[in-house]
Amino acid sequence: MLIRSPIVCVMGHVDHGKTTILDSVRGSRVAQKEAGGITQMIGASYIRRQDIDALADSLKGRMKFDLKIPGLLFIDTPGHEAFTNLRDRGGSIADIAILVIDINQGFQPQTLESLRILKQYKTPFVVAANKIDVLSGWNKQSTTSFLESMSKQPSYMAERLDEKIYQLMGKLSEHGFDCERFDRISDFKSQIAIIPVSAKTKEGMSELLMLIAGLSQKFLEGKLEMDEKGAGKGSIIEIKDEKGLGTTIDVILYDGVLRKGDEVIFLSENGPKKTKIRGLLEPNISGGKEKYAQVDIIPAAAGVKILAPDLDGAIPGSPIEACIDFEKGKQKLEKLMKNIIFEKTDKGIIVRSDSLGSLEALIKLLTEKKIPIKEAAIGNISKKDVLDAKVVSKSDKFLGAVLGFNVYAMDDAVSASKNEGIPLIISDIIYKVVEHYSEWVASQKEEEKKSAWKNLTWPAEIKALPGFCFRVSKPAIFGIKVLEGIIKPGYKLMDASGNVIGEIREIQHEKDKIEKATRGMEVAVSCDGILYGKDVNENDLLYTHIPKHEFDEWKKHANVLSSEDKELLDKISKILFKTPW
């Protein structure tokens, strides 16, 4: 058995420095006398063990281990892609993660989403507290070591940095994680390490790389064992048309070995497919004219481009592995597809995404929000998607939408969207898709509420407040509390027996005239037709009188009503017609 390189995923909120951390890893260098170097792979960056050793001499004594892993493979895949729908759903493509948090901004929405994913998949991680160079008073040092840089900072910086670290520790503690600054940790198995870094200046990168390497080796050694002759297993990251090569697939190989000539099985839009590898390609780093160099064999963990026939329709985010038994492999992939099948409904939104992993992540977010889905698939948004959404909108306008992550809408889809009034909600940030959809629903409901307020009598139950009769008649003016619903000038009021006793002329709140009063408000109303003391007495319950034809109209606007509003409509209907609404 061999020990393969751990696969590292970098996660965190937008603009907190994920890309800069990766760029810093790729460009990591120690003193010129030491040959620090990064190997560029397809969809990944590889740093060798000897280069990590060179970067982190200062930590060897503290960590008390010798590195045995070959190196570290940093994948460029987005966080959710690295953790969803891979490795037969038993885990993720990532072995360990770096959670990047801007030390000045702290926790943000995607930070919390990243934590949720890490917790769900029980993935070990460290926290890179990034942008220490932006802290007031920090003096940049020409070193990749945080400890060395810290020793040269003004004395007050220790307290200033600790204050920021403690804030992160408090937030992580709220989510069930015990954590500490890396150089103060007594047990790395039970505590999460926080490493202050600057991806921009590279201060702290030595400690970050060494800790990731050391922790991977210490706690994942069994998981990293690999049969050097085992069948290659990986995940398709991207499908690309390469000039002179045709359709190729970029793959992260996480187990076993792939060889030129191997048959592989993968998922396509038409189900499982088999093909034979014609070429394994890596970036050409020799400086020649060719963009890629061919290799005959590649062991995990690695990023590689595969050249083979019949790759059209391959699904990004789906598994690929050397095919020994096609029928067995086919059944396995079909089972995988069934596992992400959601509960389809005729009344639901249309969902499109760029890959299997992101599609599953988006379905998960929508399901958590209890948003029904009519259809979910991989690919760009078509005119048919818009027309399908239009059919749904006829029975529920708030579900008549097409959602897309990291895809685009084709021209005919954009035209159909404008013509049919169906929104296309697209984003390259996965949680923003759901957020923007929820905002659209809220705005539509608000518009419908405004329309309902304008044209229909809103159900309301009010109570006459004791001691607040200001005038007994012509008009009667008295204080009331709105127990449920909404009242407006022009609404007719009835008693608990259904007798119409008067009409609201005006509503005042703290001496100001207002257009409506809502649940919980105490206001004064002036009413025509009421004789206070006869038609209305203290503590009496009154209701808005709703004409019979408006009850039918309310059914068309039921989506804007709360459960309390619906119960009140039932109550008023029973008073007036002896039947529920």
Task: Provide the low-confidence segments as ranges.
Answer: 28-37, 85-91
CATH architecture of the largest domain: 3-Layer(aba) Sandwich
User: What would you give as the CATH superfamily of the largest domain?
Assistant: P-loop containing nucleotide triphosphate hydrolases
Counting DSSP E segments of at least 2 residues, the number of strands comes to 32
What distance separates the N and C termini? 72 Å
Strand arrangement in the largest pleated sheet: 3-4-5-2-6-7-9-8
Q: Which class best fits the helix and strand makeup?
A: alpha+beta
The percentage of residues in β strands lies in 25-35%
User: What Rg, in angstroms, do the CA atoms define?
Assistant: 32 Å
Q: What does the overall shape look like?
A: elongated
| Helicity range | 25-40%
Average predicted local confidence, pLDDT:
86
CATH class of the largest domain: Alpha Beta
Question: How many domains, as an integer?
Answer: 4
Sequence-ordered SSE layout with sheet pairings:
Blueprint: E1 2-3, E2 7-12, H1 18-26, E3 38-41, E4 44-48, H2 49-55, H3 57-63, E5 71-75, H4 79-83, E6 96-102, H5 109-120, E7 125-130, H6 146-151, H7 156-174, E8 179-181, E9 192-196, H8 205-220, E10 225-226, E11 233-242, E12 246-255, E13 257-259, E14 263-268, E15 271-276, E16 279-283, E17 292-295, E18 297-299, E19 302-307, E20 319-322, H9 326-339, E21 344-353, H10 356-368, E22 373-378, H11 383-395, E23 402-405, H12 411-420, E24 424-427, H13 430-455, E25 460-471, E26 476-487, E27 492-494, E28 500-509, E29 512-514, E30 517-518, E31 522-528, E32 541-544, H14 548-556, H15 563-577
Parallel strand pairs: 2-5, 2-6, 6-7, 7-9, 8-9, 21-22, 21-23, 23-24
Antiparallel strand pairs: 1-10, 3-4, 4-5, 11-12, 11-20, 12-19, 13-18, 14-15, 14-20, 16-17, 16-19, 25-26, 25-32, 26-30, 26-31, 27-28, 27-32, 28-29, 28-31
Helix pairs in contact: 2-8, 10-13, 11-12
